[in-house]
Design a protein that fits this description.
D-amino Acid Aminotransferase, Chain A, domain 1, 8-stranded mixed beta sheet, 6-stranded antiparallel beta sheet, 9 helices, globular, 4-amino-4-deoxychorismate lyase activity (chains A, B), EC 4.1.3.38 (chains A, B)
């Protein structure tokens, strides 16, 4: 058992024979030198990733995360990931951490060493931070201009707005800016005034009885946690919908959350310094669902 | 002597004693495992870089590149790079490759292993590609929407548009899109129709007797090669200026180039399928200057 675990992966083609799976990855010492400096991940941020939650030994939503990894690969023209290989590596990595508690399991696929003919892959598992306060009392959020107009991703697919790439420098800068302003997280807004997503999360707002989130066509990453929550709410007969919301509409919402795989549902308690209602019961129900075993 | 050389660097603070410089870096086997998978460069594209040309043993424009690296560090809130350390590593790396021919020397500074308390650095030198055709006959360029309006970088500094970060996935996707369209390179255009820069180059256009380039405030990286060319042209009494140009104005230019540290001045022979005049004499003069030793 270890709290932090790393694996290096030689990504296999989708049609690889199953006999090659076990020998296609190996555990490495966390923090040890593993990637070449001219690998296109450190060189160019040129790769894709997913972060999965491991809750008491269960890896959440492996299928949806691998489906999105495959979509990111398609958008960035990387070879299609072999789902059986990644399922196996994910299982092996999750088995190496304690069977109790929360962990964040990141899988990544890079274009490989320059010029990028052979992809590189890795898995890195770390203990989850303590998100109790964020999940209960909520978070303070500031809205930040994302610079792009709603729908830019469809007009300009090379911007990769719908792919989960390793190029997150601006997302990290947005979180630093939010902290500088005394907040916990950021919410990106399109240059034409529509709310988009957080730097590492999706937005869900409740307006009356309806749960609303940003349409992926607006130019965002389609959230696996948001999809999981919407499927859960729909199964309960609740109303859910994809709709563009302005920042003013969000300010009048009855409740709102930034949702993500590891922090789960964090209610927005404050938006740009003004309080937003926190629905404690709804939030607790959402996080109870998100923390339950999901596939 | 080797054609490809890598160094790992422990970035020193600016006030480090000179006695620590020599022991602060070491040569490593190119392509060997060097960076941890949870270093924030591969993890998040969270770092900065510069690419310098080495021409017949002379490293071009070390000072301007280190000045821009320091500016990128400021914009991304990385520790200020120690210029003496980087000068020494650059010199040592350049001494390891043959004293004849062209090489590309990349220096990079990452936020370090997650959570990023201690930066990581590296240098990687590779032989320059053969750019003779691009420098003489020119390149075919397609214009691609950059998604952001002119000036977005000043309104939203967290977009890091003026920093040379390791998050280049979209830049690489734009070059792939250009190649898919049968071109050699891309030219980003703002969502409001102004020409910006190439994914890895700056634009210079000649309109009549004046050389014009995009103002950095438009939301671009200020090019070291563009600045070097402008200083050279000004010293010759030529007219140079920073001015916003629309794509239509560029189409009517008397000549235009994409300029960068390693490919140097590549005349745009074709823009979106329509020919653009190539000024062979001016281009040859520019490249002769760029290939001469510059500090």
């Amino acid at each position: 058992m270890a709290d932090t675990v790393s694996f290096l992966v030689d990504p296999l083609p989708v049609d690889a024979s199953p006999e090659f799976l076990e020998a296609s990855f190996r555990e490495i010492e966390p923090g040890s030198g593993a990637l070449a400096v001219n690998d296109l991940a450190p060189h160019r941020g040129d790769g894709i990733f997913e972060t999965l939650a491991v809750i008491d030994g269960h890896v959440q939503e492996v299928g949806p995360h691998l489906a999105r990894l495959a979509n990111s690969a398609r958008l960035t023209e990387l070879p299609e990931p072999n789902p059986e290989q990644w399922r196996l590596v994910i299982r092996r990595a999750a088995e190496r951490v304690p069977a109790e508690g929360e962990f964040a399991l990141k899988i990544a696929l890079s274009r490989g060493v320059d010029p990028g003919t052979t992809p590189t892959g890795w898995v890195h598992v770390t203990p989850g931070a303590d998100f109790a306060a964020a999940r209960e009392r909520g978070i303070r959020v500031v809205s930040l201009d994302r610079g792009v107009a709603r729908g830019a991703g469809e007009r300009a697919p090379w911007l990769l707005l719908g792919a989960k790439t390793l190029s997150y420098a601006a997302n990290m800068a947005a979180i630093r800016e939010a902290k500088r302003r005394g907040a916990d997280d950021a919410l990106f807004v399109s240059s034409d005034g529509f709310v988009l997503e957080g730097p590492t999360s999706s937005l869900i707002a409740r307006l009356g009885d309806e749960f609303v989130t940003t349409p992926p066509a607006a130019g965002i990453l389609h959230g696996t946690t948001q999809r999981s929550i919407f499927a859960h709410l729909e199964a309960q007969g609740r109303a859910v919908g994809y709709r563009d919301l302005t920042l003013d509409e969000l300010r009048r919402a009855d409740a709102a959350w930034l949702v993500s795989s590891v922090r789960m549902a964090a209610p927005i308690a404050e938006l740009d310094g003004a309080p937003l209602p926190v629905d404690a019961d709804e939030t607790a129900a959402l996080n109870a669902y998100l923390l339950s075993p999901r596939d």
